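Final report, results section. Input specification for complex C-07:
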Amino acid sequence: MAAAGWPVCAQSLKGVILDMCGVLYDSGDGDGVAIPGSIEAVQRLKRSDLQLRFCTNETQASRDRFVAKLQRLGFDISVKEVFSPAPAAVSVLKERGLRPHLLVYDGLLPEFEGLDQKNPNCVVIGDAAEKFSYENLNDAFRVLIGLDKPLLFSLGQGRYYKETDGLKLDVGVYMKALEYACDVKAQVIGKPSPTFFQSVLNDMGIQPHEALMIGDDLVNDVGGAQSCGMMGVQVRTGKYRASDERHSSVRADGTEDNLSRAVDLLLHHRGQ
Amino acid sequence: MAGRRALKAVLIDLSGTLHIEDTAVPGAQEALSRLRKASVAIKFVTNTTKESKRNLLERLQRLNFDVQEKEIFTSLTAARSLLEQRQHRPLLLVEDSALEDFTGIDTSDPNAVVIGLAPDHFNYQTMNKAFRMILDGAPLIAIHKARYYKRKDGLALGPGPFVTGLEYATDCKATVVGKPEKTFFTQALSDLGCSACEAVMIGDDARDDVGGAQNAGMFGILVKTGKYREGDEHKISPPPHLTCDSFPDAVEHILKNLL
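Structure output:
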């Protein structure tokens, strides 16, 4: 029943934005593994008349290294097609002349090189994984509580993601922890922030209603895209859970088994 | 009019009410002895996530308070009785010093998560483990949800932020067992054979002690010792039944007006 609906509206589309982790590949030891059919699905999209961009809240590696990993997995993808939170955060910090205390994964640190980090006046938190120790969180907490007006930036607000050995807590959980501890509201950079989605649309030069977002995260990918006026389709890979289809506030325009299936339907309805 | 109800039980907070760190509040021991001569049951109630009953008892006895272990009811006791009641096998994220209050509880193949203040356990791996259990349906039980506390080298995160993070991750609400939860107060009274309207709570925390107790249907008396700050009595509605200088004044009021 779900299949009939969304691809019909897809005829007027001009661009597609793909989430990466959980849609293209599952992360895990080493490079992780490509999700079956996704490599070909990306190729087919690239051969179509649709524009294609990739949008990730990945913050464990710099964009260059992250894209290199995807290329090793077999994906036809380049750095300029990929939008991730860290470069967006760096521009905000520079614009506002802020000195960050960073609680991020070591692999992300190169993105912040060149920024003054002495005597910090804000905290930037990313998916720090094993670095989310009590002491590291406490250090971030003390910086925040010591500021007249605590300023917290969070690179995404995801709840969890899937690695090959199971579900892992994402940055949003620790963002909420610091918000609660300091009674502040974090500024989210990355999905589902409308500014972030808009920067991708601007790059393609299209309007929201001409774009489709495909992701495995119902709230941040699908809901975030929908609240910008885009269509949002969820795939049943990655962090997808059956309960997503009964979510109280977010309803995907379509739910498909995987990216390959979604691209099949999309291109079929466009006669391609 | 409130004073006409026959009082059967008095709940007393520990830190900040009977003592401040290792010093007793002046006159508190004598006041407790006077209260014991009246026909009321007494319980000592406190929010702690790391001090076992035995630790608390030893400190009180060192300060010459006439207290027995079975009269102490803590947030750890509350967590334990909830676990027993629901026959949960907990993953216990509490400090080692608190573990003895859970002696005898089956923790094999856990199906519930209990969180206290446990810096040693708040690492990525253990948090992930707790998260996966909750996502699979294990209930999340919080000893309490304090934001932070003061330690010798400065402020440090309490259990609250970690509980809040897990709530967000799993889209569930933790069951909080400590003060100011209503169930904490009703459980503290449960073996005394009296109802909430026949009990009074004395404490230095307007919200957690007095507000919580009054919300459970008890009287609340706020003492101006410990963490009390000027104007705290106006922070709760309805206001405390009584606000007085310290524990001995509270006892005086009870003996004169509530019995």
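The longest helix of chain A spans residues 134-145. The domain at 2-84+191-269 of chain A is CATH 3.40.50.1000 (Rossmann fold). This concludes the modelling results for the funded period.
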